[in-house]
Write a sequence for this structure.
């Protein structure tokens, strides 16, 4: 049967062929252009151009009207460092409104008290962009402990040892003192680990966790054995873990954990513990990492960086005690309750206070949070003399498995 359609002319066919070729060439041009600007492997020219552009932007002063607008909207005091404003100013999202942020901007987080210390903040945020950061650990920790937490990010490379020596491999690293060449010692009185190990015997005065770096001393025996000791105040790890079904304590946190010996002990039992620590006249975070466990450089004032109802255990020895303002301590205890899963354990290890404070202040404060008491042992704290009437409390508390809300 003959086709009902008339055959197309040669000119018509050539026209359609031209359109097809043109559209393909246009597509190729667009894809090549986009790929070169969004490549996951940018060329050296692209990186150099970005670096130059970044430095140019930072070197140029923020326009006065822009700075005023940011300050007016945020209530930020004037005369803050340009790099601080560059970091904390609203950052426009490249693809516009994002439902997760409920905004078309990102506001980078930074502790609001940062702006209360403009001189220290200006010193901290003054550096060469894309260059080396100042060797200013003392300054940054001072800001952090004043409440400037989290610290603002910086666009520079941190101070590091010139000839860094890698840590010992696991498991040797657990109980080995790292090389002195793994630390920048500028911020500390001691300039090597030998000094830190011996300072409890050679130095007068107080230093936080003074004997912690001596892994052959008291650290060697902490939380060992199978039963409580020292009048029941010193719980053992195995005694605490026996409270729960085997294998149900898997992940947790140690608040103010010194050199992370608690985390090391728990790792031998296949339990992962993160350790919070500051660097108070000693490289605690570097030492913890060199041992092979994870340090968290946050103060006791910082909200714990975990989601609700997630951790199996939280431990804290000595840090949570009567030196902390009552209201702050109350918030901290509720934050610990928040991150523990139902059925999770809070091991309050050697909380200390003056005798009458325990019954009048701290027992009601702890009980108000909602924990169940598993163990509660009170004893005398005699290391500074009996006349001070100081007391220790060691408690094992459980977040209720049911109706914990």
């Amino acid at each position: 049967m003959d086709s009902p359609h008339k055959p197309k002319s040669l000119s018509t066919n050539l026209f359609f062929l031209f359109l097809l070729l043109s559209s393909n060439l246009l597509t190729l041009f667009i894809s090549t252009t986009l790929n070169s600007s969004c490549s996951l492997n940018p060329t050296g020219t692209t990186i150099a151009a970005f670096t130059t552009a970044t430095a140019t932007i930072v070197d140029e002063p923020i326009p006065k009207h822009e700075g005023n607008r940011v300050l007016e909207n945020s209530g930020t005091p004037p005369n803050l460092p340009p790099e601080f404003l560059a970091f904390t100013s609203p950052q426009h999202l490249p693809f516009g409104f994002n439902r997760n942020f409920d905004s078309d901007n990102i506001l980078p987080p930074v502790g609001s008290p940062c702006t209360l210390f403009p001189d220290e903040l200006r010193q901290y945020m003054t550096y060469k962009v894309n260059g080396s950061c100042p060797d200013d650990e003392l300054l940054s920790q001072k800001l952090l402990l004043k409440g400037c937490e989290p610290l603002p990010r910086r666009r520079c490379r941190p101070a590091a040892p010139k000839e860094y020596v890698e840590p010992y491999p696991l498991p040797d690293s657990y109980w080995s003192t790292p090389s002195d060449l793994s630390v920048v010692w500028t911020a500390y009185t001691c300039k090597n680990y030998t000094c830190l190990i011996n300072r409890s015997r050679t130095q007068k005065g107080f230093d936080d966790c003074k004997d912690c770096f001596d892994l052959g001393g008291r650290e060697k025996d902490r939380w060992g054995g199978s039963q409580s000791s020292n009048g029941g105040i010193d719980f053992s790890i195995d005694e605490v873990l026996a409270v729960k079904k085997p294998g149900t304590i898997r992940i947790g946190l140690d608040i103010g954990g010194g050199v992370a010996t608690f985390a090391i002990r728990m790792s031998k039992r296949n339990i992962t513990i993160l350790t919070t620590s500051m660097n108070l006249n000693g490289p605690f975070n570097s030492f913890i990492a060199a041992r092979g466990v994870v340090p968290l450089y946050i103060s006791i004032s910082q909200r714990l960086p975990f989601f609700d109802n997630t951790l199996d255990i939280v431990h804290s020895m000595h840090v949570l005690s009567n030196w902390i303002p009552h209201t702050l301590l109350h918030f901290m205890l509720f934050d610990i309750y928040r991150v523990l899963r139902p059925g999770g354990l809070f091991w309050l290890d050697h909380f200390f206070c003056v005798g009458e404070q325990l019954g009048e202040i701290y027992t009601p404060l702890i009980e108000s949070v909602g924990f169940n008491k598993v163990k509660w042992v009170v004893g005398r704290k005699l290391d500074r003399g009996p006349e001070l009437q100081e007391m220790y409390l060691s408690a094992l508390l459980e977040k209720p498995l049911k109706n914990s809300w």
In short: The chain has a mean pLDDT of 84. The radius of gyration is 29 Å.
